[in-house]
Specification:
This protein has helices at 4-28, 233-253; strands spanning 40-41, 44-48, 56-60, 65-68, 74-78, 92-96, 99-100, 103-108, 111-116, 125-130, 146-152, 171-175, 178-182, 186-188, 190-193, 201-202, 207-208, 215-217, 220-226, 259-260, 271-272, 275-279, 283-285, 290-293, 300-304, 308-310, 316-319, 327-331, 335-337, 342-349, 353-355, 360-367, 370-374, 377-379. The chain is mainly beta. The protein has three domains: 1-51, no CATH class; 55-156, Immunoglobulin-like (Sandwich); 166-379, no CATH class. It has a seven-stranded parallel β-sheet with strand order 16-13-33-31-29-26-23, with no helix packed on it. Strands 12-15-19-14-34-32 form a six-stranded parallel β-barrel.
């Protein structure tokens, strides 16, 4: 049986083969006919020699995402600046069961956005497509259509609506002033820094890609981006940081909390159900497990006016199907994860996120100043 996923994987493979063939043609040419090429690749007269075909590098929601909020917009980020005149409703579509969904398409930086006219239907599968009619500024279109699917959340969900991270959700670590590591750190996911330059990413032994749009590291399963890399990275990073700040403001601005000043901020050893929690002080998790119990689509938002401190060896346990991607820690002060602490959730911190020796994190560290790691294992949810 051919599923939508297997079909998409097949299309991706075909796209890779086509790109490889195109690049091979450009590299080798047809010397015997070179005098007749006039700036185009032999055997591919509609593709200028040396052209780099644009790609859609990431989407929100991600392909096959579940629990998507019915009021959210869709977006896709491209590998290069695109021609806004080609990012339109005819090239960026959303359908449900083959029926088109009305919406407005906009483009800014390197990001295309689809804003549905009405809220989507709960617990429903949707298909998004950006066609090959989407072109970069040189007139090069996508090699194949970019297709992805997602399922909206059920109406039977406990807790508030989740925080929309936008393109900040493409990063496991995102900071504005610096990111550093010591010891044998293991990062699974992408790292981003802006407006600071790559020189403020230290301890990772950065290896610049030939395109200079990103770097890699033996400590990172993913890519590393900084504001001073080759375009379109600067614009992409500016958007991601802006989305991070918007997400922080959203989380901090939620009203009508379900729980206020619970346990005077010391939630060590407590079991917390889905909901909106608010503290006018700091929050402490120390010594023993704090358990978050709820379903796979349930949401927790913790509004913390002070610091978030997770003591040495303390850990967070998820039960009942609860997922780290649905847990949001909005921290106006500093976040400190102690030695060998085991933490779950997405940290939206207005200042420093400090991960001490041997910390394990299943979530994201999104800081409006810096992120420091020390033999840390952090994995995107």
């Amino acid at each position: 049986m051919v599923t939508k996923t297997s079909k998409r994987q097949f299309v991706t493979i075909i796209a890779m083969v086509l790109i490889t063939l195109i690049m091979s043609i450009r590299a080798n040419g047809c010397n015997s006919n070179s005098s007749h090429d006039h700036g185009t690749t032999s055997g591919s007269s509609d593709i200028p020699a040396g052209a780099i075909m644009p790609t859609a590098t990431s989407t929100v929601p991600a392909d096959l995402a579940t629990g998507v909020v019915i009021s959210w917009n869709l977006s896709a980020d491209f590998s290069t600046a695109m021609d806004p005149a080609t990012i339109i409703n005819a090239t960026f579509t959303l359908t449900q069961g083959g029926a088109p969904i009305a919406g407005a398409v906009t483009y800014a930086g390197t990001t295309a956005t689809f804003n549905p006219t009405n809220n989507l239907v709960a617990n429903t599968l949707y298909d998004a497509t950006i066609t090959t009619g989407a072109e970069d500024l040189a007139g090069n279109g996508l090699v194949v259509d970019k297709e992805w699917s997602f399922t909206t959340r059920s109406n039977v969900v406990a807790g508030p609506d989740p925080v929309n991270l936008g393109t900040a959700g493409n990063f496991v670590v995102l900071a504005k002033t610096g990111t550093s590591t010591t010891g044998v750190t293991a990062v699974t996911g992408d790292i981003g820094l802006s407006p600071a330059a790559a020189t403020f990413i230290t301890g990772f032994g950065l290896i610049a890609d030939a395109s200079n749009t990103f770097s890699t590291s033996s400590l990172v399963t993913g890519r590393i981006y900084a504001a001073d890399y080759t375009p379109p990275t600067p614009a992409t990073m500016t958007t991601a940081v802006s989305d991070m700040e918007t997400a922080f403001t959203d989380a901090a601005g939620r009203t009508l909390p379900d729980f206020t000043e619970l346990f005077a901020g010391d939630i060590s050893g407590q079991t917390l159900v889905p909901g909106l929690y608010k503290w006018g002080t700091g929050v402490l998790i120390n010594g023993v497990s704090t358990t978050l119990t709820g379903g796979s689509d349930d949401i927790w938002i913790f509004q913390i006016a002070g610091d978030l401190t997770v003591g040495n060896g303390a850990f967070i346990t998820l039960s009942g199907g609860a997922q780290a991607k649905n847990i949001f820690w909005q921290v106006s002060g500093q976040t400190t994860l102690g030695t060998t602490a085991d933490f779950k959730g997405i940290i939206l911190c207005q200042t420093l996120i400090e991960m001490q020796t041997g910390t394990i994190v299943h979530g994201r560290a999104l800081a409006q100043t810096a992120v420091t790691l020390d033999a840390t294992a952090i994995t995107e949810p």
